[in-house]
Amino acid sequence: MRTIYAVTHPEATHHVERVVGGWHDSRLTPAGLSAAVSIARALRARIPVGADVELFSSDLQRTRQTAEKVAELFGVKPVLDRRLREKSYGEAGGRPQEWLDRRFIPPPAVGERLEHDEGVAGAETKAALARRVYAAMGEILQRPCEHQIIVTHGGSLTCVVTSWIKMPINAIGYASFRVPPGSITTLREDDYFHNRTVASLGDTRHLDPPAAH
After folding, report:
1. The whole model's pTM is what?
2. Helix/strand/coil for 54
3. In what order do the strands lie in the sheet with 79-80?
4. Which of 4, 68, 93, 179 could bridge across to 24 with cysteines, CB 3.0–4.6 Å?
């Protein structure tokens, strides 16, 4: 049985500053750092002590900080991979969200969506994002490890999931798996049928405050 835990980084400075994330190298907020600890504890509770664990992360600060909290509990070193980054929004990265909103051209309901030009210089297409995430996932899945943790971004998570279920890139034009920041998506492959399942999508129960007694 292979299990992948795909983690989306929690609250970062670009969230509270209302600026565009993408490749803008924002950091976790104090609340985000606290949530990263909760993510690490939730993963530690799910993965048996002594099991082989590998940890992969986007190289941006907000994901790297999240991965570092996980690494502390598991005693492993994160493998940083820029291919797991969020989609690049080109010249919009780090600018106010409303700046992007005024210029953004949404994809058409029908027609070309994967190579759609969003009207922002330097922005990646969905196809470009998918190609690099699929390449990273292909290498991760070649490794014979039972438990793998991947720390990435909300936008990239869709491509992690579609890659996992072997959806061809040319078929993902309409795919969107929206999950909250700080979530854990659990992906499993069984050893008998080798079926790949999405066991849970965007789980944030570990972020809930403890109930009052």
Report:
1. 0.95
2. strand
3. 79-80, 53-57, 147-152, 2-8, 184-189, 196-203
4. 93
Query: How many CA atoms within 13 Å lie on the side-chain side of 103?
Result: 18
Fold of 2-207: Rossmann fold (3.40.50)
Give the residue from 55, 118, 62 showing the smallest Cα distance to 88: 118
Pairing of strands 79-80, 196-203: unpaired
Q: Which amino acid is present at 124? A: E
3-class SS of residue 99: helix
Pairing of β 184-189 and β 2-8: antiparallel
List phi, psi (to 5°) of 43: -65, -40
Measuring CA to CA, how many Å separate 79 from each of 15, 26, 30, 150, 181? 25, 19, 24, 9, 21
Spans of all domains in the chain = 2-207
Give the total residue count for the chain.
Answer: 213
